[in-house]
């Protein structure tokens, strides 16, 4: 099983992302765009995991929810990762209660660490990935997409659960959902 933990952003952001992704595909026809119904903010990527480890992961994640209250994020604008002339990733800014998101990510990573899951990156940089270049050297068209997103707002969404997803090709299937239940 290929697993990762994430938060979803709700129907409003999904609907607006679908509209924008449709528009952006024309600007970068060779890029791999995410599916709007799968937009999420990854917290910790676990990678390939044996199904027998799922109970321990489920138990570790269950302890996270009661320590965090639901919070609100907004998404808008755009940027790229990679060299400026040949970016590899197109993303949108995450705003709002980013401190709550970072606290949730830190707690999730801490609970998974004793199970042998090292965080992918030292510093968590919240962003919503929208597309990736197919070419290993990047895709200059993604820069045009970032410019087209400069004044676009995708909306606001309430984060009320932590989700363990299984990646099955282009589909992300929820395996475990942990409600955020601390009174805020």
Give a written overview of the molecule:
The protein is an alpha+beta fold and 184 residues long. It has one domain (2-179): Cyclic Phosphodiesterase, Chain: A (Alpha-Beta Complex), CATH 3.90.1140. 26% of the residues lie in helices and 39% in strands. It has 4 helices and 9 strands. Strands 2-6-5-4-7 form a 5-stranded antiparallel beta sheet, with helices on both faces. Strands 3-1-8-9 form a 4-stranded antiparallel beta sheet, covered by helices on one side. Strand 8 (161-168) and strand 9 (171-179) form a beta hairpin. The longest helix has 15 residues, at 11-25. The radius of gyration is 16 Å and the shape is globular.
Task: Describe what is shown at a glance.
This protein is of the alpha+beta class.
Name a few traits of the molecule:
hydrolase; RNA 2',3'-cyclic 3'-phosphodiesterase activity; single chain; 5-stranded antiparallel β-sheet; 4-stranded antiparallel β-sheet; EC 3.1.4.58; 26% helix; Cyclic Phosphodiesterase, Chain: A; Cyclic_Pdiesterase; 9 strands; alpha+beta; 184 residues
Read across the widest sheet, the strand sequence of neighbours is 2-6-5-4-7
Total strands: the figure is 9
Q: Quick one: CATH class?
A: Alpha Beta
| CATH architecture grouping | Alpha-Beta Complex
Number of domains: 1
* N→C terminal distance: 34 Å
CATH superfamily: Cyclic phosphodiesterase
Described by strand count, sense and barrel closure, the largest sheet is: 5 strands, antiparallel
Query: Mean pLDDT, nearest integer?
Result: 93
**CATH level-3 fold name:** Cyclic Phosphodiesterase, Chain: A
What is the approximate shape?
globular
Percent of residues in β-strands: 35-45%
Structural class: alpha+beta
Global Rg: 16 Å
Taking pLDDT < 50 over at least 5 consecutive residues as the criterion, the unreliable ranges are none
Give the number of helices: 4
């Amino acid at each position: 099983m290929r697993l990762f933990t994430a938060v979803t952003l709700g129907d409003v952001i999904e609907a607006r992302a679908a509209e924008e992704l449709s528009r952006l595909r024309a600007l970068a026809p060779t890029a791999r765009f995410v599916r709007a119904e799968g937009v999420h903010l990854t917290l910790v990527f676990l990678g390939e995991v044996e199904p027998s480890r799922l109970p321990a992961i489920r138990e570790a994640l269950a302890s996270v929810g009661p320590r965090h209250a639901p919070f609100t994020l907004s998404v808008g604008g755009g940027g790229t990762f990679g060299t400026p002339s040949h970016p590899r990733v197109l993303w949108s800014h995450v705003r709002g209660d980013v401190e709550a998101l970072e606290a949730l990510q830190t707690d999730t990573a801490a609970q998974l660490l004793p199970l042998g899951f090292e965080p992918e990156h030292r510093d968590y940089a919240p962003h919503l990935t929208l597309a990736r270049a197919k070419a290993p050297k990047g895709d200059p068209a993604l820069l045009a997409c970032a410019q087209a997103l400069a004044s676009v707002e995708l909306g606001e969404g309430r984060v009320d659960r932590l989700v363990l997803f299984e990646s099955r090709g282009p589909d992300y299937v929820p395996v475990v959902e942990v409600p955020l239940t601390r009174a805020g």
